[in-house]
């Protein structure tokens, strides 16, 4: 009699409650609004409804692409540069998703610096950088597209770049408009910016989520379940930015909750996550190829062992969104 009762109870449980598959995703940085859909899907039960128990692996000294390629995570959240660099170098990973439907980075300088009115004026100025080859390719392209000579001084400072710019110790840097840009506004910093795409740099999507080719081939149902629930999380966050911000604040440790709220408002107002009728997370083949070509031609992407690469003519095999049709 007890056995029959137990069996009846098991059959009455939802599928997700009976068998939760464990899934991990490595983050590219400390928890922030780029990851909002992951947190929403977790906290609102979208993953649980899909039969998944998802763990967000905190950022470490190892790049999320390396963690993924090594098999230490099932999925990874990656910057476009991080993904394309790892892929070009031979990592067997594939992109499944793009969080941001357009570029949210920009070149920023102090409004009080009257010597800068256009990218060509950056010639001879001091740049606070972050140590990647992408930065020089981007800045040089912008200066030259505006008729200037790409000669400027670089001081690698990491996140200290923003304080250095605010104090006037450097002339310009790069920032994410929906995070550092919002923080600058909250701090009352008067700054101006140049948009990359206005000066020769291809517009791009960013915030890729990917997996390994092996995982995609061996567990396509799990990949589809994870990505569909993730899509649901980002779509909900885009439609409910204030509520999503509160969910993220509750899930992390933020010194300034208003930065999270302001960032989510900026993401929604700028249609970064949800843009018109484009499905949330949809990779645009033309923009994907355009940025890859730019990085190839600029010498940013390197092959195994740092070997120089030439444009292969086609990078459509670098991403797969078959899960969207399942």
Spans where pLDDT lies below 50 across 5 or more residues: 1-17
How many DSSP-defined strands?
10
Instruction: Give the strand order of the largest sheet, numbering strands 1, 2, ... along the chain.
Output: 2-1-3-10-4
What portion of the residues fall into strands of 2 or more residues? 15-25%
Structure commentary:
This protein is α/β, with parallel strands linked by helices and 326 residues long. The protein folds into two domains: 21-101 and 205-325, D-Maltodextrin-Binding Protein, domain 2, CATH 3.40.190.10; 105-199, Periplasmic binding protein-like II (D-Maltodextrin-Binding Protein, domain 2), CATH 3.40.190. Helices cover 40% and strands 17% of the residues. The strands form three sheets. The protein has a five-stranded mixed beta sheet. The chain has a three-stranded antiparallel beta sheet with strand order 8-5-9, with helices on one face. Strands 6-7 form a two-stranded parallel sheet.
Per-chain topology:
Layout: H1 2-12, H2 15-18, E1 21-26, H3 36-43, H4 46-49, E2 52-57, H5 64-69, E3 75-78, H6 80-88, E4 93-100, E5 105-110, E6 126-129, H7 133-145, E7 153-156, H8 161-167, E8 172-176, H9 180-186, E9 191-194, E10 206-212, H10 213-218, H11 220-239, H12 241-251, H13 257-269, H14 285-297
Parallel strand pairs: 1-2, 1-3, 6-7
Antiparallel strand pairs: 3-10, 4-10, 5-8, 5-9
Keyphrases for this structure?
three-stranded antiparallel β-sheet, D-Maltodextrin-Binding Protein, domain 2, disordered N terminus, alpha/beta, single chain, 2 domains, 14 helices, five-stranded mixed β-sheet, 10 strands, 326 residues
């Amino acid at each position: 009699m007890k056995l029959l009762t137990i069996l009846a109870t098991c059959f009455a449980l939802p599928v997700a409650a009976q068998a939760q598959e464990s899934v991990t995703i490595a983050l590219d940085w400390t928890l922030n609004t780029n990851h909002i859909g992951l947190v929403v899907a977790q906290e609102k039960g979208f993953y649980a409804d899909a039969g998944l128990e998802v763990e967000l692996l905190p950022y470490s000294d190892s790049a999320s692409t390396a963690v993924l390629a090594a098999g230490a995570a099932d999925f990874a959240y990656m910057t476009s540069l991080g993904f394309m660099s790892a892929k070009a170098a031979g990592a067997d990973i594939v992109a499944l998703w793009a969080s941001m439907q357009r570029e949210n980075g920009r070149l920023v300088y102090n409004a009080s610096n009257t010597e800068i009115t256009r990218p060509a004026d950056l010639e001879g100025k001091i740049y606070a950088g972050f140590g990647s080859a992408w930065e020089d390719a981007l800045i040089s392209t912008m200066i030259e597209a505006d008729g200037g000579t790409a000669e400027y001084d670089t001081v690698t400072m990491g996140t200290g770049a923003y304080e250095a710019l605010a104090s006037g110790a450097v002339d310009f840097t790069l920032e994410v408009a929906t995070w550092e840009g919002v923080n600058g506004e909250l701090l009352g910093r008067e700054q101006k910016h140049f948009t990359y795409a206005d000066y020769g740099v291809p517009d791009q999507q960013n915030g890729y989520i990917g997996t390994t080719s092996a995982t995609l081939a061996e567990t396509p149902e799990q990949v589809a379940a994870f990505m569909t629930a993730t899509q649901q999380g980002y779509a909900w966050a885009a439609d409910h930015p204030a509520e999503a911000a509160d969910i993220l604040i509750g899930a992390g440790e933020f010194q300034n909750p208003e930065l999270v709220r302001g960032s989510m408002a900026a993401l929604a107002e700028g249609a970064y996550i949800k843009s018109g009728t484009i499905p949330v997370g949809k990779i645009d083949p033309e923009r994907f190829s355009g940025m890859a070509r730019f990085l190839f031609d600029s010498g940013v992407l390197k092959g195994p062992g740092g070997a120089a690469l030439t444009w292969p003519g086609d990078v459509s095999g670098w991403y797969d969104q078959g899960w969207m049709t399942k």
